[in-house]
Write a structure and sequence with these properties.
The protein is of the alpha+beta class and 257 residues long. 35% of the residues lie in helices and 25% in strands. 27% of the residues are buried. The strands form six sheets. Strands 8-1-4-5-13 form a five-stranded mixed beta sheet, with helices on both faces. A two-stranded antiparallel ribbon has the order 2-3. Strands 6-7 form a two-stranded antiparallel sheet.
């Protein structure tokens, strides 16, 4: 699965949406391993340089905005697959709805997570106001959204991965506690995931998630190096090793040219 969390271009003051389909704020490649009961994810840095055939180079998060209307997810999918030299084939693209995500977290009575540092960030143009002191907290939907989206003044990418992992585990725990709410949870989850996942598939995924041990939920990131200007360059060799470790690739593919 390719999960995309997309921001909105807002007018000054954050009250009016200027462009609904904008850059991908979060790009996460995920694998659900039903046989081995494992959930793996690898985050793709927004500033990685990507260049599709017959096109100039762009930061990979820009493809969602540059694509024809309604094709942002498919174009980002093509960019990610091309970036990885087509070693990984993506079965489904899911564009997360942040408003529905917040409602979903509130429905399951919040998520309990921790942060070793204060998380504080204000983006008036983007309508994002984050103020989470260090420690362990039960977050509501809005704060949970900020908890996983924040980048600036929030530690390195590994700390962001840990926040994403904590959120996944916290949702998993809340699903187990509030299992009697499953019909409402499936309905709310469908709004978060859009048309990419059907309600029966979502019910199957929720049942599967209950069976996955915490130690089998693993997140990583595609290794990069600094490129020209504000671009990051993918370290393909290291990325293939990371994809093998997380179960996306067979080991023999990690060493090919």
């Amino acid at each position: 699965l390719l999960l995309l969390g997309c921001d909105e271009d807002l007018a000054p003051g954050g009250k009016k949406v200027l462009t609904k389909a904008s850059r991908a704020d979060m790009i996460l490649l995920a694998k659900l391993d039903f046989v081995n009961r494992r959930i793996s994810g690898v985050s793709v840095a927004r500033d990685i340089r990507s260049q599709l055939p017959n096109d100039r180079a762009h930061k990979i998060n820009a493809y969602h905005r540059l694509a024809p209307l309604g094709q942002g997810g498919e174009m980002t999918k093509r960019a990610v697959e091309h970036l990885l030299r087509n070693d990984v084939q993506i079965d489904r693209v899911i564009e997360l709805d942040y408003e529905a995500f917040m409602a979903f977290i509130d429905l399951i009575h919040g998520v309990k997570v921790s942060t070793p540092i204060d998380l504080h960030y204000v983006d008036r143009a983007g309508g994002l106001y984050i103020d989470i002191p260090k420690g362990t907290h039960l977050l509501n939907g809005y704060d949970a959204m900020g908890y996983v989206r924040i980048r600036k003044n929030a530690g390195d990418d590994y700390m962001r991965q840990e926040r994403q992992r904590q959120l996944l585990l916290a949702v998993k725990d809340q699903l187990r506690v509030h299992w009697t709410l499953m019909p409402q949870i499936i309905d709310a989850g469908a709004r978060v995931l859009g048309d990419s996942v059907t309600p029966p598939e979502l019910a199957a995924l929720a049942t599967f998630a209950k069976t996955v041990p915490k130690e089998s939920v693993k997140l990583g990131q595609l290794p990069t190096r600094q490129g020209r200007g504000s671009f990051l360059e993918l370290d393909l060799k290291k990325s293939r090793k990371e994809l093998v470790k997380l179960g996306f690739l067979e080991s023999k593919l990690a060493v090919r040219d």
